[in-house]
Design goal:
It comes from Priestia veravalensis. By secondary structure, the chain is α+β, with helices and mostly antiparallel strands. Helix content is 53%, strand content 13%.
Length: 107
């Protein structure tokens, strides 16, 4: 496909989703609201990178950050409706990976 024939919206979507860790963060949040430390430990990403990705996703309207005024303060991240709309895509990627990627070739 010629670069000039790409839809700008598709190109923007691929730019957002292709950032390292972004797909895994979205996939993790499909199961419901998560605290920062739960996301960090489940996908083994550094805190700095996770913080950057969550901020980017929040700016894009894909992730919502909710602060609970408790002691200590509790912060949870969840998908917005825009983020939840990615679920069918993530499920298809999961199906594709199960069918086409060999376990012993993963690293």
């Amino acid at each position: 496909m010629n670069q000039s024939t790409l839809c700008p919206r598709f190109e923007k979507a691929m730019t957002i989703l292709s950032q390292r860790w972004t797909g895994l963060i979205i996939y993790k949040l499909l199961s419901g609201p998560q605290r920062f430390c739960a996301i960090e430990s489940s996908i083994s990403v550094s805190g700095r990178v996770l913080s950057e990705r969550l901020k980017d996703l929040e700016q894009q309207g894909i992730v919502k950050r909710e602060v609970f005024p408790e002691t200590p303060v509790r912060i949870e991240y969840s998908l917005t409706e825009k983020g939840k709309a990615l679920e069918p895509i993530m499920i298809e990627i999961e199906k594709w990976s199960q069918q086409w990627l060999e376990q012993d070739n993963l690293s």
